[in-house]
Write a structure and sequence with these properties.
four-stranded antiparallel beta sheet, 4 strands, 178 residues, 5 helices, alpha+beta
């Protein structure tokens, strides 16, 4: 591994940008799209803004009365794991650093909502066709999804490279062949 830190400007710049965009768009959505569940068409029925407070997790997953606390704990645990992964990243692994910044920024954005309010995470981006709708989401959700895809792609690539490297034969293997 190269010496030095794993590209803090890219990681922190990405994380802070995602959190800032997420917070600003959620504040605007909460202020301008009330009341909840009323669609505001932007591109016809395909792209709408609809305010929804999600007390659960992705796709409306809800674990009951303690969902908020469970998802806060899970997010904190995920951030610790992602932090460890970041610390093992080489400075020149730009795509991996970007992916980690996106996932962490999105996780922090939604964590702030959970800490701030028991009503849930502010979701407002509503896409679909007619009654076939994707679950309503926000900027943090987009960052987590894109970052998770990039991270999986990068790690898969690293795994393929690592598994294609042939280990040198040991001395005893060489002697056995003679």
């Amino acid at each position: 591994m190269e010496s030095g830190k794993p590209n803090p400007p890219l990681f922190w710049g990405t994380l802070i940008t995602v959190v800032a965009l997420d917070l600003v768009t959620k504040l605007i959505a909460a202020a301008t799209l009330s009341p909840q569940h009323i669609p505001h068409e932007i591109l016809g029925n395909h792209f709408r803004l609809t305010l929804v407070y999600n007390p659960g997790a992705a796709f409306g997953l809800n674990l009951g009365a303690y969902s908020r606390w469970i998802f806060m704990a899970l997010t904190a645990g995920a951030l610790v794991i992602l932090g460890r992964l970041y610390r093992t990243t080489r400075q020149t692994d730009y795509l991996r650093v970007l992916a980690l910044g996106l996932v962490c920024g999105g996780a922090v954005g939604n964590l702030i909502d959970r800490i701030r309010s028991a009503t849930g995470v502010v979701d407002f981006i509503d896409v679909g066709v007619g009654d076939l709708r994707w679950p309503t989401f926000n900027v943090a959700d987009m960052a987590v999804s894109i970052g998770a895809f990039l991270l999986a792609w990068v790690l898969w690539g690293e795994d393929r490279v690592a598994s294609s490297v042939v280990a040198p034969a040991s001395v005893s293997d060489t002697q056995a062949e003679i």
